[in-house]
Amino acid sequence: MSNPGTPGRQPGSQRTADPTPALTEPAQAYAELAAGNRRFVRGAPRHPNQDAGHRAAVADGQHPFAVIVGCSDSRLAAEIIFDRGLGDLFVVRTAGHTTGPEVLGSVEYAVTVLGTPLVVVLGHDSCGAVQAARESAATGTPPQGHLRAVVDAVLPSLRRAEEEGVDDIDGIVDIHIAQTVEALLGQSPVLAAEVARGRCAVVGVSYRLSAGVVRPVAAVPATTLDVPIDAGTPAAPAA
Ligand SMILES: [Zn+2]
User: Fold this and answer.
1) Distance 163 CA to ligand 1 centre (A)
2) Is 124 annotated as contributing to ligand binding?
C-alpha cells in the first residue's frame, strides 16, 4: 500500500485514515464517492481504510455510507473504482444490476438497519447483460438456464429504449440504469419511504471501462448531485 520511497507510518499519521468517517447526508455521501472516483481516474488513490488498524476498528460494527447495487462485471470492483476501504461500502452485485427480492432485502437491510444514507446503481458501458438481452430480443430466443432471469429483468429497459428511439448500446445502458433506480424505489416501499423522509437518496451512475470515470445518469432527489466534490490536491510530480 505504501509507495516506494515513502516513509513508514508515523505516529499520528493521517495518511490512511478516513477523513470523513461519519457520513450521514446523502449528498455528502455521493460527493465522497465521486471524489474517490476522481482520485482513481487520475491514478492517485489514497486507499483509505485498508490498513490493519482500521480493520480492527470496524470489526465490532459497520456503518457503510453507501450501498452499491452494481453489475457483477469483473472490471467494476466498487472499492477500487471509488477508492474506499473496509466498512465503507455495502455492495450488492448481479449481472446487469438486476433487482430480485434478495437484492431488495439487502438494500433495505443497509438503509434501515445500518443507517446507510445513499444507494448507488452502478452500471457501465458495453454491459454484457444488456447485450445478451438485446440479442435475445432480436432473435426471439431466450437464453438457457437461469440466465433467462437476468435477460427478462433487462427487457423492460429495452422496450423503454425502443419507445424513446434509443438504439446504441451505451444509450440503452443509461436507460437501464435509470430504470433500475426507478425499480428500486417502485419495488421497495421501505426504501421509497426513507427517500421521502430525506434520510436516503438513490443515484444511478454509469462507469466507463476504459477511462474509469463514473458519470451520474439519474438521482432521486436530483439535488443529491449538487454538493461540490473535493478529491484532494493532486500529488506533486516526482522530482
Ligand atoms: Zn454489466
Assistant:
1) 22
2) yes
